[in-house]
Design brief:
single chain; 132 residues; alpha+beta; 2 domains; two-stranded antiparallel ribbon
Length: 132
């Protein structure tokens, strides 16, 4: 039926107004096209100095199925143990390079235990301590 309507659109048997109505009808009944969008990273200026607001985008990414799949591949590759020590508990995946954040190559990721991961980020302050 839709094929017949589309053929009718290209024929000279209908008026311009009817053609427009048919096109609008086809848009209404067609399935919406889902476009995969890359997340926008917002940089806001504060007191003349650019500030990188990434926490929400990063947290959304870390909870995404894409990240979970990458994380599982890295853990499996590294044998479910820390690459710096023999620990097999509290494993985390560390980014060696933050230039490709949100679109990492598996070679830019490495498995670390929590203790070794904190050594890699000596200035890290958990967000729940922001109040103090």
């Amino acid at each position: 039926m839709i094929a017949d309507i589309k053929k009718l659109l290209h024929s000279n048997k209908i008026t311009k107004k009817e053609r427009l109505e048919i096109k609008q009808f086809l848009k209404r009944i067609s399935k919406p096209k889902i476009k995969k969008r890359k997340k926008k990273i917002v940089i806001k200026k504060k007191k003349g100095k650019p500030t990188f607001h990434w926490k929400k985008a990063y947290n959304d990414y870390i909870n995404s199925p894409e990240w979970r799949a990458k994380r599982e591949l890295v853990l499996k590759r590294d044998g479910y143990k820390c690459t710096k020590c023999p620990c097999k508990l509290n494993l985390e995946v560390h980014h060696l390079n933050y230039k490709t954040l949100f679109d990492e190559d598996l070679n830019d990721l490495v498995t670390l235990c929590h203790k070794c991961h904190m050594k890699e980020h000596p200035n890290y302050k958990p967000s729940y301590l922001d109040k103090f």
